[in-house]
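Two proteins, back to back. First:
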Amino acid sequence: MANSKLGISLLMSGLGIVGTSLLLGLFYAPSVSSNEWNAPEAYRIIFWHVPTAWTSFITFGMLFVGSVGWMWKRKEWAWELSGIAAELSLLYGLCVVISGPLWGMAEWGTPWDWGDVRLNTYAILSCLALYLVMSRKSQPDTPEFRDVFSGIGLFGFLLVPLTYFATIAWQVRHPAPIVGPTAEPNAVDPIIYQIWLLSFFGFLILMAGQAILSSKVYSNEKRLEELQTIIDKKKEGDINGQ
């Protein structure tokens, strides 16, 4: 019960911070130059797009930890973590691949560019997350399936650094990184950057709440399965006793 209350508290706090940051992005963040942007007001979608992209990289990192934990130690917590991380990676990946094309349509005149490595590697990441979520719900829970699932999770995480550096090595349409070791100094207005950080902080808290609540759901499902097994064995014993 305590974990559920913590998860709900984090969930609501995260939503409040994210909502505040989005309002700041819409009404407080400075405008950008029309000489540098084709759709200067459309840029405000990045206050959703960029923080959700950062958060998705965190969730793919969680997927990596869970996959390694299962492959190496065969720990149940690692299997649970990888399942939660796959679902969260899909959620935040969808936030990115929906908001990005909306901005691209306004700024580039097209929602997608199949020649852009950054866009395509991230699309593959999101598709991997979708596959993992669907397969986990449709395939029998066997050690062999868990190994395959974890192997795909490890491969997916390897795409994260490739996605980040793609705009450096093969930049086509997607802007180059504006944060991180390869970003240019003062690449973004300080106010915009601060709102980004606030939004990212909110999404992290939101994601933590979602992870805690998902863990509670997994625990309840496992407990129900154990109870069902006990009931089935008891029924089988009663039948044999007759």
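And the second protein:
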Amino acid sequence: MQSKTSFFNMALFKKNISRTWIAGLLYFVLLLLMLPVYFVISTANINGDDWYSRLGYTMEMRLFEHMSTMPTTFIAIIISIIVTGITFWYLFNRRDSYMMHSFPVTRRSLFFTGILSSLTVSLVPVILASVIMTIAAAARGCDGLSCIWYWALIVAVSTLLFTAVAIFSLMISGQIVTGIIFYFIFNFLYLMMDIAFRLTASILMWGLSEAMNGIQYRIWTPVLYIPNNAKVFSDVVMDDNYERVIEFKHSFTGGHVLAIYAAAALVIIIVSYQLYRFKKLETVLDFIAVPFMKPVFSVGMSFFISMVAGAFISGMVEALTSLTYDMKYGIAIVSALILGAIIYFATQMLIEKTLRVFCAKKAFACAVYSLAALGVLLCMRLDVLGIENRVPALKDIQWAGIDNNYTMVFTDEMDIEAFRQIHQNFLTDKKELRNINYNYPDVDGKTFSIRYKLKNGDIIIRSYPVINTEASVVSSEYVAATQPILDFVNNPGRIKEHIIGNIWNDCEIKSMDFATLVDVPENNDYYFEYNEFDELSTKERKAKYKRVYEAFLKDIEAGKVFQQDFAGYDYKYDENNKVRLYNSFDFIVRNPDVVYFSDSETFYDNAYGGQTIMHEQSIYAELTVDCTNTLKALKAEGFYTDEDDIITYDEFSKKYENYGYDSEAIDPEAIDAERAEYIFEDPDGDLDPLEAIMN
């Protein structure tokens, strides 16, 4: 006879396996296709004329790259709820529940035998697939087979954790569908709360309109945190031309993360067992079967849904009419409180399964909730946590950056501190600045962004609406707050360092193009022409480019190019078109011995965690008639021969408007990018060059 203290029942274990083995089999087949089958197919020609072999890949590199791309949590989160749901299906059918609990088996045995059988069905396929993958990789002559088993360890810990969460979710509900919904809610709860606050902040809080761009996966969202922090890491570094492997880095990361999650899984299992011990059989088919979860569900749903909805209502009103900062918050708070009360009683109806929820007790509870929600929203309005005013300490900053007309990222400590001080001074006038569009509705402007990358990996993003500092109606306080930012980014030294790049003073000019426009009046058309200097040697061409580049640097020093402002696109539109050149100008800077630091890729984190090594960069500059040094050098070096070759946007529009072309619709740089595909040797022939490009 089984002991009353037994944690395991073999008959029950076999019964559970008999109901879930098909899920395990399908899981095993999927893992076979993903791991050994795909690996063998992808490396079938490794000893022949294979692209990877020509690049210098070894079998170890191929194995690490293969295992580093294999999913971990995304398969574990699905198989865990499927197997656990089938195993504990009896909890959601009144007849089955009473029958199972009438057998001479303790709840302890039911619970822990169910967990063990669920983990067996979920983990045995992982182990078997890993064994087969190891054999296949060894047969292919791979080193580093340990990466297969580290991947298996990650999947195993993830499965243990998600199985624990699945059991907890099933214990707090009396409905299988609701339990599954709760399972996914719990797994993404922190992320959803973070998104709710960020959505609200992006609409209501000053400077946080880009808050949604700063989402980072935390440890509380394991399904997304584990793939980034516990993984098989593989990084194959190529040369500049992507023709040969020059370095291979690999490692196993996140062992401590797996230990934390394994411990958390055990705690959740113990808590779930306590819930199961005291779970009443009559709660079968109840929406929520655990009493303490009922107010948590009602308050949580009411607060977060109403908070986001209130912010959206305020945003919609602001889209229709201009609002002050306080008016916007007022609309959001009133809307959130009204919607919160409605949602609170709606959730009560869902929990109690009746419409009769309006009573003094629940009205009092709703009032308490409303006061608490009001307190939280007022804290946001008063910025009690200092979110709007936050500027990180110098010791915590890895880099600081700004994006306006151009992008600049500062890594030098002195530049970072100077930038911090300017940002702090800007924030001291936020009462003036946050209502700037309401106070000056007729002054055009734009939005600029500030980012701080912290040494712990976090990114702080702020985005501020600004208006033209040169407008006559703006206050002196506004100019005093914003002009230092423009003075900082318009410094010639910073322009050269951050727009041209860190190699600006130690580089060769690999290529340079200046477009001149050739008129074809008989066809009512035109095309762009470039002097390629094919008659010169590479050395002579680069020397020519270098002389123009040095003249271009003089125009930067004179403040004639790459200047930034806070004016909108339409500011002095006609006047600017009279000086802006329609002729495109671009060049490539290169230093084969120094890695090019890309400000824009760093600012927007475009490397996606990989290592991007560049030694060159294309620079596009919009010249004006005031760039006299550059234009003089271009003419002297033969890029153009006649002053008529220089044409402004205004002159282009007047000259070619009868051709039916809009100067704003046709970007010469876009045409420049396509010119390699179309060689215009005969403008009088059948090929219409502009039509060829536009089509």
